[in-house]
Design goal:
The complex is a heterodimer of chains A (279) and B (335).
Chain A lengths: L4 H29 L3 H5 L12 H9 L2 H32 L5 H11 L4 H19 L7 H25 L3 H9 L4 H12 L1 H16 L3 H6 L7 H4 L11 H35 L1
Helix pairs in contact in A: 1-13, 3-13, 4-7, 4-10, 5-7, 7-10, 7-13, 8-9, 10-13
Chain B lengths: L6 H11 L10 H42 L20 H7 L4 H35 L6 H13 L2 H11 L6 H8 L15 H25 L4 H9 L4 H12 L1 H16 L3 H7 L10 H11 L3 H26 L8
Helix pairs in contact in B: 2-14, 3-4, 3-14, 4-8, 4-11, 5-8, 6-12, 8-11, 11-14, 13-14
Classes of the chains: A mainly alpha (279), B mainly alpha (335).
Chain lengths: 279, 335
């Protein structure tokens, strides 16, 4: 694009304001995490009176943060891995094969995406209670219930996006492999999936972020032993007091793994989104 | 793919006209028919896991949710909920009669939620589009800004909300400190309760959601060929005209998907108010999902929550019919 002077000035102003909007809360998270407790008890200050790493040490003792961390990792990783695998299968079927009930299936997948989680929460809770009474399989307050819930919730978007992505991959690639004696599934795994890697990484990141950040179901379907991070972090506040510096330190700690993962896959993410969802 | 589109319907008539297939190597046509059958079998097999999960976690709970709406289900029956008494339309009458306090609250909440969606979506789209257009041009520091703008999307949404709750703190939060330092307020207003709560909710939501719009629009804009701009510039079109006549039309399909997706996410918003205000939102900032949550899990009136959910579901079904028509191009899966 050929840039006029007006364009440059507008760009400078808009990007400066946007950067401030984005940076201020982020700065406050970081600055607060390094503040001593008396700093966060009084009037807000932009600059800590002294820098301390104490909150990052204390936060592990104040609440069982390590346990919450382990719970979140188990639930999120399992849900993400299964969700990616299942959406690969379903999207391949939608993109390449014709089978009975294909259109109803695609419609149901698309439409469940728009229903709010709140619609499913109470019925799921009741169903899980009933299953436990009937066959003794515990799902409330257990990893399993949370895993299958999260995994199912990221399926619609993942299938929708990945099937779009797979459609963009030339059919000739797998046909050539099949002529060489490979089965259809063999061709899918050896030829199609390596090419579709950006799309797969994009839906994996999507499922991961969804599960890692989920609040509503975690608030009802977990108990003290399986509490995940979003709910666990609330333990830093009591009726009378909030340990803001430790809360911010913990917030940074829980964000760091996915920020790093996110930055690492950023380029795949943009490629995956533009190829899958947009076309 | 059109030749294989209806294998089940084509198979019987063909086999009837040819009762005894000739021995020897199968003809090309037969091979193709066998392939179609195998494809259909494999297709069904591949969607079984997804379909089973959809059924168990989405479809069946939705039906049970509908059942709850017609039953008097509260704390007394929770342990043995299948025995809850049938009450017909009682829950709907109780919850949705605008003459009663509960009914008036429901309609006010629905209206407020629509307003919330329109405001947040509008700002989100404008900010995302502006950032995408500007970051698609080249200048120093572009890479840093591109990464920075994605950070609010990369961190868990509840972490951003925690930071904003800290900033909006009435007694000595950053917002009130800044406003009184600038001499704009004499007395510290409350931001997380009362009339200002809706404003706080909107600001935090825009902060949390605009990077997603930015990401999607940037991806779409990057696909616009550079030559289009060069040709327009040769013809003397200003940057502004280039935006209206090249960028906007070329990202329209991404736009349609983005706007509808975000509208639905926002309409069902729960995380932002839950972290910002706690389990019970202030009345002035109550949205539909937190209202149903409050009826179900704070007041333990599941029947009423179920009735509201069902109504919400019907509304969203109407929207989704339009959505699918717009987002799913006709014949896309038969290509």
């Amino acid at each position: 694009m050929i840039e006029t002077r007006g364009f440059r000035i507008a760009r400078a102003i808009v990007l400066t304001l946007l950067s401030l909007f984005v940076v201020v809360p982020l700065y406050i998270i970081v600055a607060t995490a390094f503040k001593p407790l008396e700093d966060v008890r009084g009037r807000f200050t932009w600059i800590p009176s002294s820098l301390t790493v104490e909150p990052f040490i204390e936060m592990w003792r104040t609440v069982p943060l390590a346990d919450y961390f382990v719970n979140s990792v188990i639930v999120t990783m399992t849900a993400t891995a299964l969700s990616v695998l299942i959406s690969i299968f379903a999207s391949y079927a939608i993109a390449r094969l014709s089978f009975p009930l294909k259109r109803p299936f695609s419609l149901v997948i698309l439409s469940t995406q728009m229903f709010p989680g709140i619609l499913f929460l109470l019925p799921l809770f009741l169903i899980f209670t009933q299953i436990q009474r009937a066959i003794g399989l515990q799902l409330n307050g257990n990893y399993l219930g949370l895993i299958i819930t999260y995994l199912t919730f990221s399926l619609p978007f993942s299938i929708w996006m990945l099937s779009g992505y797979l459609r963009g991959i030339p059919r000739e690639l797998e046909e050539a492999a099949m002529i060489d004696g490979s089965s259809r599934l063999g061709a899918l795994f050896r030829v199609v999936l390596p090419v579709a890697r950006p799309g797969i990484i994009a839906v994996g990141v999507f499922a991961f972020i969804n599960a890692w950040s989920e609040v509503l179901f975690a608030s009802v379907l977990t108990n003290n032993d399986t509490r995940t991070l979003p709910i666990g972090l609330q333990s830093y506040s009591s009726e009378s007091d909030v340990l803001w510096n430790e809360l911010m330190a913990a917030s940074i700690t829980v964000s760091l793994p996915i920020i790093l993962a996110f930055l690492f896959v950023q380029r795949y993410l943009v490629a995956g989104l533009s190829a899958g969802a947009v076309k | 793919m059109t030749t294989l589109s209806a294998p089940a319907a084509a198979a019987p008539s063909v086999s009837a006209s040819k009762p005894k297939p000739a021995p020897g190597p199968p003809s090309k046509r037969q091979r193709r028919r066998g392939e179609a059958r195998r494809g259909a079998r494999l297709g069904l097999l591949l969607i079984v896991p997804a379909a089973a999960l959809e059924l168990a976690i989405h479809i069946i709970p939705m039906m049970i949710g509908g059942w709850i709406a017609f039953h008097d289900l509260d704390q007394r029956h929770i342990r043995n909920w299948t025995q809850a008494p049938f009450v017909g339309l009682d829950n709907f009458i109780r919850g949705l009669d605008p003459g009663t306090a509960t009914g008036a609250e429901f309609f006010a909440t629905a209206g407020r939620t629509v307003l919330y969606v329109v405001i947040v979506l509008g700002f989100t789209w404008v900010l995302g589009m502006a950032a995408a257009v500007f970051l698609n041009s080249s200048f120093r520091g572009r890479g840093i800004l591109r990464t920075l703008f994605l950070v609010p999307y990369a961190i868990p949404m509840y972490v951003g909300c925690i930071a904003w709750a800290f900033m909006f703190n009435q007694r000595d939060g950053m917002v009130n400190t800044l406003l009184s330092d600038l001499g704009l307020i004499d007395e510290n207003p409350f931001w997380l309760i009362g009339d200002n709560a809706f404003f706080a909710l909107v600001v935090v939501s825009i902060w949390s959601y605009w990077p997603f719009a930015f990401l999607m629009l940037l991806a779409a804009i990057q696909n616009v060929p550079q030559e289009a701009y060069e040709a327009a510039a040769l013809d003397g079109a200003s940057n502004w005209r280039q935006f209206w006549h090249i960028t906007l039309p070329m990202v329209s399909s991404a736009n349609g998907a983005l706007v509808l997706l975000m509208a639905l996410w926002l309409f069902n918003q729960f995380t932002v108010p839950f972290v910002l205000f706690g389990p019970a939102s202030p009345d002035q900032a109550m949205l539909v999902s937190p209202l149903i949550f409050s009826n179900s899990f704070l007041q333990w009136d599941f029947g009423l929550g179920g009735a509201m959910s069902l109504l919400l579901l019907l509304g969203l079904l109407a929207v989704s019919a339009v959505y699918i028509r717009m987002v799913l191009p006709k014949g896309r899966e038969d290509d």
